[in-house]
Amino acid sequence: MQSGRKASGMELRERLVGMREELLEELKEFLRMPSVSAREDGGGAFRECAEWVLGKLEEAGARARLLETGGHPVVYAEAGEGEGALLSYGHYDVQPPEPLELWESDPFEPAIRGDRLYARGVADDKGDVLARIQALRIYLREHGELPFRLRFLIEGEEEVGSPSLGPFVRENAGLLSADACLWEGSIKDEAGRPVIFCGTKGLAYVELRARGPSHDLHSMYGGIAPNPAWRLVQALRTIKNERGEITLDGFAELAEPPSPEDLEAISRIPFDDAALRTAWGVEELDRGLSGREALEEMLLRPTANIAGMHSGYTGPGSKTIVPSEAFVKMDFRLVAGQSPSRVVQLLREHLRRRGMEDIEVVDLHGLEPAKTPVNAPIVRLAKETWSDLGRDDALVYPTIGGSGPTSLIATGLGIPTIMAGNVADSESRIHSPNESVRVEDYLETVAYFVRLFERFGGR
Amino acid sequence: MQSGRKASGMELRERLVGMREELLEELKEFLRMPSVSAREDGGGAFRECAEWVLGKLEEAGARARLLETGGHPVVYAEAGEGEGALLSYGHYDVQPPEPLELWESDPFEPAIRGDRLYARGVADDKGDVLARIQALRIYLREHGELPFRLRFLIEGEEEVGSPSLGPFVRENAGLLSADACLWEGSIKDEAGRPVIFCGTKGLAYVELRARGPSHDLHSMYGGIAPNPAWRLVQALRTIKNERGEITLDGFAELAEPPSPEDLEAISRIPFDDAALRTAWGVEELDRGLSGREALEEMLLRPTANIAGMHSGYTGPGSKTIVPSEAFVKMDFRLVAGQSPSRVVQLLREHLRRRGMEDIEVVDLHGLEPAKTPVNAPIVRLAKETWSDLGRDDALVYPTIGGSGPTSLIATGLGIPTIMAGNVADSESRIHSPNESVRVEDYLETVAYFVRLFERFGGR
């Protein structure tokens, strides 16, 4: 990886001027394919979409193939020759468009209104996928050959939790080896600044289930029948103390402390907690957090969140019962050092130690945390590429705060993995009706990857 | 009130032998009228039922009338002349029969199978209502006149929470004055022993509502967004301590302690907590309670029960959100000294004192506690009447553990109020499909009230 000549942002974007219609028409074609992974694939429409991506990769100059996974196929491709290697991860499947009545135009008929292009999947993740393929095509047209290996891993099951990705990565480690991985999922922030994310938190998603009487009882027995809702409250009170601090035995001890570099990166991120409070309609953040402390909590500290809970009668008015069951759904966001399986084990031990082994811990979903140092070469490259485009305001976040299967690559294969250059912005409404991107952001993303490939290749 | 000659149980029941068919046919006629108070009254069928009861009262020899309430009318009647007065409370409305598919015969076409009579309302409360009217008729046929005033208050809205009863009682206190009131709602227990209940607990039914962000958030914000489900847990932990004891400020102090007589009554009640545990499928009662301690808790101590709770995502699998709202439904069962409005006030003060005034306390429903001393004359009379029928096993419970509007009479009018002699048993499935009573129990109930009227009248 070497840094190349400094090109002006205008110059880079000007390269695309004559291609504008071509690039956008191709994107619209991609967006018209309803590749909703949560649906049954009616008659091969889904595979057609995978084959379309394959065709685009070949057209761009890559050697592409479909690799079967048992679920939807992975589109894999490789271009270029050389010592270095870059891996690009994306997905060609999309979220269901429902509720349809809230869309202002057909989710699968791309429409431009104002400066934005609306369609399901344009921000998550078809825009990213195609921008990188088009960038390769432009690169090869202009420079003739790519002096490193550029590998594409484009899956079709991201929106249903990537069930085949783990086995696929393990079985195809050789195909995926690289110096760095560019994951999908970055954004431009509220102020339009490009963001580079250097990691994801892990996730342990569990359900705690308490059982009381075999059937709901008249609440005249409320003083003597074991009440599963109270039982859960008694368990939950041992997981957070009165101050809202996590008190799960051994949980804090597992967490690696944030590095000085992470803390330094945090200090450079503009963070307006007043704007968040306004957006959320709350007077205070949790535990009265504010400023850098809140940002550090959000990006670098683990959480113990209640995502849902239920017991007994929840309809209108009054019904007097001792419920027979109660459950709470919790997601623990994890930082380096905390694996989900270990956290589930801690939770079971924690409850057992308190005589609460009657509370069942159901392990629903787990993701490992993944972290690339904020001063890794790929982070520098990604930031400098923005500078080349005239954007000196790119921000480096130690993590995205959320979770994803990045650790399969970052930890599983030991490849530094970041999210950068993606097409979405803060108004993209990912997973919601009226998903969109700014048209100019899309074209800028194509230019960004052309330039990133140049930099990585030493130009 | 004087105790009269001791008649043998056989002798009393023998009086009814020739009337068996007449009494049962009349009951079936009553049961065929679908007086479901929760339904819209289609074309006056409901009023027809009230008028039928009125007719039966007149036929028995009472002076009866319908009194309008704004809702379904009250059937009021009075019989006899004299110093003493007895008030009988019952209701002619019934619960909805649904789910219909679980009935083995038409809920409104009474059917005898084995030794039981099946129909909606037979146990709650038409059997009781008619047995008392028939008892009056038999009494007057046999003795010519009744030497005290027997008053009937028969309402038509009990199964929808008696909304008109409070105003009715206040406006008609003169019509209702009596030395004692025989409320509906007693049973025979699992061993077939008649039970006399001397009171009901009060009820404060509230919803506690916590609010977080204005919309569900991605749980990547779980470390900094205020979570309403955690907020509720933090509030609930202040209402019960780790040992499950109620710690609501001022709550215990309001409760009058059980009287020595109540405690003595408790000690005479056979109570098998193992049978309860088996019926409920639990290994232990709440807080490891057992034996007399459990019975005391159930009948004489207040409760703080969670009847339901809800927040966020409760469907299958995992969804990672910070919920925007959470609520818990709680019923507090109250003992003498604890009025529902005062308890709701305590709860608000309790939360305010802890900086939790953001949690809304919605007052959904309240009932005052009501208590008649276990050694009151009417209790003795009720127990001795059972002895006259050859039943020396009647049990006196200080309260029923549950709640009802008895305090309107017991406290509002200062009339000692008990539940005794009712027709239901432990298999009656009140409010459920296949509601039933034992045919012999019905006839015994008629005999019970004939004898009770005799005793009250000094025979």
UniProtKB/TrEMBL annotation, chains A, B:
GO biological process: lysine biosynthetic process via diaminopimelate; proteolysis
GO cellular component annotations of the record: cytosol
Matching Pfam families: M20_dimer (PF07687), Peptidase_M20 (PF01546)
Molecular functions (GO terms): metal ion binding; peptidase activity; succinyl-diaminopimelate desuccinylase activity
InterPro entries according to UniProt: Cyt/Met_Dipeptidase, Peptidase_M20, Peptidase_M20_dimer
Cleaved signal peptide residues: none
Highest taxon listed in the record's lineage: Bacteria
Sequence ranges assigned to domain Peptidase M20 dimerisation in this UniProt record: 199-355
Keywords annotated in UniProt: Hydrolase, Metal-binding, Protease
Protein name from the UniProt record: Peptidase M20
Species lineage: Bacteria, Bacillati, Actinomycetota, Rubrobacteria, Rubrobacterales
